[in-house]
Amino acid sequence: MFAEIFGIPPQALFGQLLLGLINGSFYALLSLGLAVIFGMLNVINFAHGALYMLGAFVAWLLLNRLGIGYWPALLLAPLIVGAIGIVLEKALLRWLYKLDHLYGLLLTFGLALIIEGMFRHWYGVSGMPYPIPPALQGGQNLGFMFLPNYRAWVVVASLAVCLATWYAIERTRLGAYLRAATENPVLVQAFGINVPLMITLTYGFGVALAGFAGVLAAPIYSVNPLMGANLIIVVFAVVVIGGMGSILGAIVTGFGLGLLEGLTKVFYPEASNIVIFVVMIVVLLIKPAGLFGRER
Predict the structure, then answer these.
(1) Closest listed residue to residue 213, CA positions, set 37, 39, 12, 57
(2) In this structure, is residue 139 part of a structural domain?
(3) Contact yes or no for 206/162 (Cβ under 8 A)
(4) CA separation (Å) from 49 to 37, 52, 136, 273?
(5) Which domain range does residue 55 map to?
(6) pTM to 2 decimals?
(7) What is the pLDDT of residues 163-189, one digit of tens each?
(8) Using a CB cutoff of 8 Å and minimum separation of 24, what contacts does 264-268 make?
(9) To 10 degrees, what angle do helices 10-41 and 247-267 make?
């Protein structure tokens, strides 16, 4: 009825909402990783987009070099990207925790350029296909729209991972330790908890989320070195809107802004590329800490 009033076919409306929900799934996963890293390490991780791209490339390499398919890659690729993140944290980032945010931003920005530059040198900028697993091929005819199985899986998987991460951080003893370590690491360490190890594993987990998103994205978007650079600016806007370091803000804002972007493509396509940044400006004017953020 809504679509009929505005003269928009239901297939077009729900199709764009589905695309928006898929984009929102990646916004939520990536902004969640950024929020976890910033909340624990106080580092603005500009290399997140490059590590998202790395997750997609690891899945592609596992398939084309070792014959390892999608389902094992969905586990292996995040672990590999997380391990790379742990090496980066131990070798570089840990020296910057007591310095201004700008130093971490510049370092991770440089890391992003190096990672993307290496893959552009090795593979060029042409996209490489990654097949949808046979179990998720095809789709369902819902009457008002056709729902591809893989797209539905992406939304369900990302939502499940986001909610599991939120629960682990906000409702478990481990999450309580993590939150306490951000407020008073000296006191937490006095209770026998290895705070440096916790910080290292947290960074590894944050970038593993980016790697997981990269594997999910590989069958939808072509695997190419620029896929992270094209997305990271939007994801940073999502994080700012939700509130830097806010887990719930990253999830809700990611999915919500994806849907808003999809609706904008239906009613005013010319503004679809800037609507998220317009929302960011409005939110920062009204609540500088973000919708779910806390004043520091």
Answers:
(1) 57
(2) no
(3) no
(4) 14, 5, 26, 18
(5) 9-128+146-286
(6) 0.93
(7) 999 999 888 988 888 878 777 777 888
(8) 265/16, 265/19, 265/20, 266/8, 266/12, 266/13, 266/16, 266/17, 267/6, 267/8
(9) 150
